Amino acid sequence: MALRLSHVRRSCASADALDSDEGAALLDGLASAISVATVDFMQYPESYYFEDVDENMALPRHLGYAAALAEQAATARHLDVRLAGSVLGTALADLAESLDGRFLHTNGPARQVFAAYAVDHDPNSHGE
User: Fewest CB within a 10 Å sphere: which of 10, 78, 86, 91?
Assistant: First the structure.
């Protein structure tokens, strides 16, 4: 999922390109993958501590972008994009709640939780 988010981000997909049937399918697929990740963190909490050396495969680096995609979808012309964006936003909120409740304890909104998750997994911040 992190790699897929990285692909979308690095492709610099325009708002118009995402406001399409294909954009809706992309957002729906991301929502599904986020849901799987949430279950994985709940069932295998040790996976929170795994760190990916390749930044393109590091989930903490891409969740803020996923949240931005969900927010962008809320203003799309296509109803399916708005729906898929809403589902993605809900999946991200569930993931944030799970991460915050088990590991981070920010008691903040999803974006704050994702920022804390990214800092917690920044190899340059350990030991500071």
Answer: 10
